[in-house]
Amino acid sequence: MFGENLTLGQASIVALFSITVVFLVLLAISYLIRLIAVIVTSIQKPKEAPAAKSAPAPAAEEPAETEDDSHLVAVITAAVASYLGKDSSSFVVKSITPLNTESDWSRLSRTSALH
Amino acid sequence: MLEILLRFWESSGFSQIFAFDTVLFGIPLPGHLIMILIACLFLYLAIHKGFEPYLLIPIAFGMLLVNLPFANLMLHPDGDVKGGLLYYLYQGVDLGIYPPLIFLCIGAGTDFGPLIANPKSLLLGAAAQLGIFVTFFGAIFLGFTGPEAASIGIIGGADGPTALLLTSQLAPNLLGAIAIAAYSYMALVPVIQPPIMKALTTEKERQIKMEQLRPVSKTEKIVFPIIVTIFTVLLLPDAAPLIGMLMLGNLVKEAGCVPHLVDALQNSLMYIISIFLGLTVGAKASAEMFLRAETIKIIVLGVIAFSMGTAGGVLLGKLMSKLDGGKTNPLIGAAGVSAVPMAARVVQKEGQKYNPSNFLLMHAMGPNVAGVIGSAVAAGMLLLFFK
After folding, report:
1. Chain B neighbours among A 10-39 (CB < 8 Å)?
2. How far apart are CA B176 and CA B155, in angstroms?
3. How far is CA A108 from CA A58, A75, A100, in A?
4. How far apart are CA B164 and CA B374, in angstroms?
5. Residue A64 has what pLDDT?
6. DSSP for B163-176?
7. Which of A44, A45, A94, B64 stands the most exposed, by the fewest C-beta atoms within 10 Å?
8. Tens digit of pLDDT for each residue in B136-163?
């Protein structure tokens, strides 16, 4: 558009015009992101309600003892997330109960099924 | 017998290597020898000091090879005479193939999540492109032509592939110097940025803790590259090779159903292209092209470009912080120059220096990846003006 040699005036026009365009393009993209977020959440919301109920499948029914288990919950949430290959925000661990009833054999078969 | 020996001597590189055939500031210098020594210095820095070794080793070796007399690795084909090996490999740079392929690989390794969670960071990515245009203006002032000034300015984008693509299209004779300046300053981000960040912010601003980012759904991450490509390429077709490849790489990653492709892009292809790109870019630094007064000007302008870009980002960060009542830590603006992820790491480190409980890394990744898009758009603009 311009020749090889620019005057300082032309250079400042190029510089000002370009930085303005860069700003406007990125501003527009930031609004596009907001738009995507609005559309995606509005589509996903009706689906989310039943999903939230069925998601905490790995949790057992009985509540654990009342001691502070936040660390344990974090570890188990991460383990479940990693096993399911899902983000940890996509399910809720509602309760954790130790299972003492099973025999060593059934525990072995369960862990080997994981691998 | 003596004649044979003399012929052999004349055909060997040793007869030429000490020739004072390069003139810098009116002083004749043994150009080949100086360039070989510079190449060896870069090899030392890369291998022993660990300065960007993945790029600097091939770049320095390319410099070494091209400056050995009579090896003719960059020889143009002429009639029946075939060209040199590096000449053919260089076609990937000359035709603008390697840099977009690198962008494809970068896209596959980039998480746009922090950017999607905080779209405002795009503006910080735009502000940090200020360095490009200030330097462009400065280069015109110093007597460079328009296309050359544009290529020097893009050093401020702090994005290697973008700088190489633009320079190979606009000012291929400056490619060696610009590539070396760009990659050196990217390695020096932890040295260049902190003093500027400190000078432009108050202690209180640097201590600001930012709210945790919202989680971003998979759908948003998949839709993002598609929409950005459609919008940006429609508006600025010249940015298509870079933006298109970056977003394709990202889509492949976010789609989640082609893990082998992601692995190939993030590892194998990335390293394959890097070695060709580094080698041939280094091969553009022959004595007659590199040992010139322009190279010194480019190196000085390059550091101005980096500093102005950092300043632009931090200053807009300050403005944002004022407008949103102190929710934004202005330091994250510095990450708006691309240099992913180095610039974001610098922000994290600086932030923690002033407030040990501060974790700015994810907040800085937003402007950081926005900077990649910003410099690609800026490159598109400059191509539009000067191609």
Report:
1. 11-12, 14-19, 21-23, 25-34, 36-37
2. 12
3. 18, 21, 14
4. 16
5. 47
6. HHHHHHHH-GGGHH
7. A45
8. 999 999 999 999 999 999 999 999 899 9
d(CA A6, CA A12): 10
| Four-point Cα dihedral B350, B355, B357, B360, nearest 10 | -40
Answer yes or no: are the C-beta atoms of B162 and B146 closer than 8 Å: no
Q: Where are the domains of chain A?
A: 1-49, 55-115
3-class DSSP state for residue A87? coil
Q: Which two tokens stand for residue B47?
A: 């291998």
Could you say which DSSP state residue B22 is in?
E
B306, B156 Cβ separation under 8 angstroms = yes
Provide ipTM, 2 decimals: 0.90
Whole-structure pTM over 0.80, yes or no? yes
Interchain proximity B126–A37, CB inside 8 Å: no
pLDDT digits (tens, 9 = 90+) for B20-47: 888 788 888 888 999 999 999 999 999 9
Q: For residues B119 and B327, what is the distance between their CA atoms, to the nearest angstrom?
A: 14
Substitution target in B120, B140, B144, B372 with the highest count of A β-carbons within 10 Å is: B140
